[in-house]
Amino acid sequence: MSNAKIITISLPNPYFEKDNNAYLIDAGELALLDTGIDTPQALSALQQALSKQGYRAEEIKKILLTHKHIDHFGLARRLQELSGAQVYVHGDDHDDVTHFDERYDYINRLYLEKMLLWGIPQQLINLIAIRSKMAKLGRSVPAETLTDDQSVPIGKAELRVVHTPGHTQGSACFVLEDALFTGDHLLPDYTPNIGATEVRVDGMLPKYLNSLEKIRAFSGLRTLPGHGREIASLTERIDTILSHHKEREKRILAILADGKSRTVYEIALALFGKMKEHHALLGAGEAQAHLELLEQQGRVEKREDHRYYRPPRPSTSAT
Ligand SMILES: [Zn+2]
Ligand SMILES: [Zn+2]
């Protein structure tokens, strides 16, 4: 029995990643899942898409956010001002959304510190810093917190929250009738960034891998991501991403096989090739997430200057 109608809306995002998906749910009450960035273009694209289907932004009652990134919550404040909608986001991402304006400079500073630590060249860091100053594409928005397994009524339908930390600490997927909304947790064309997009918390990769397994339970549902087209097979996509991560881990160990130490950035370069602007941050963050896990497992070691190396294998002791 289906009570909810789902409408996919594509919103322009020329700044990073790709266009964003927002999903309008009509179940007698209107809810919007994710909002796109805060630009006049994204707002008017949203309004046009709504009016084509006979809706208005002013009628939206609830806005549910999959996570705290600006391309997913940026427009929430503006939409709330238009409609009075209640905004919801998982508790672990809550404060970064509600205090986005106040924290913007602080978070950017955290990024700068990480980039220095990872050995990204100063010139590239400067470029990334200027770019993020120019592109403040969101505003703080008052929001309610969500918790794992919570149910949120939307008219005649019920939406269930599935906490899936990894891409960010408060990332969540939503289940609504026969659909699973995955935000950036599971994407059709590339592996979501782990390690550069949650700068406040370490150890995101093992969390992410756990959260991937967690959503396996929903295979059979339509899988609707935060960017790109509907994912045809949830299980296949999970397996592909898991094997990408295994492969990347193997390559990192191979890069370090000569016993020499390298910065995170040097390892990212060897993994991904030359990376432009913020891709250097994303690539280095990704490498860092793997290195952190390998270090925990005792397979690589980190020097005081944050360079990683593979310790020589313990020689078989002579009797
Ligand atoms: Zn994201
Ligand atoms: Zn995104």
Automatic annotation (TrEMBL):
SMART domains: Lactamase_B. SUPFAM superfamilies: Metallo-hydrolase/oxidoreductase. Residues 19-227 form the Metallo-beta-lactamase domain. It comes from Fraserbacteria sp. (strain RBG_16_55_9). It comes from the Bacteria. CDD domains: TTHA1429-like_MBL-fold. This is Metallo-beta-lactamase domain-containing protein.
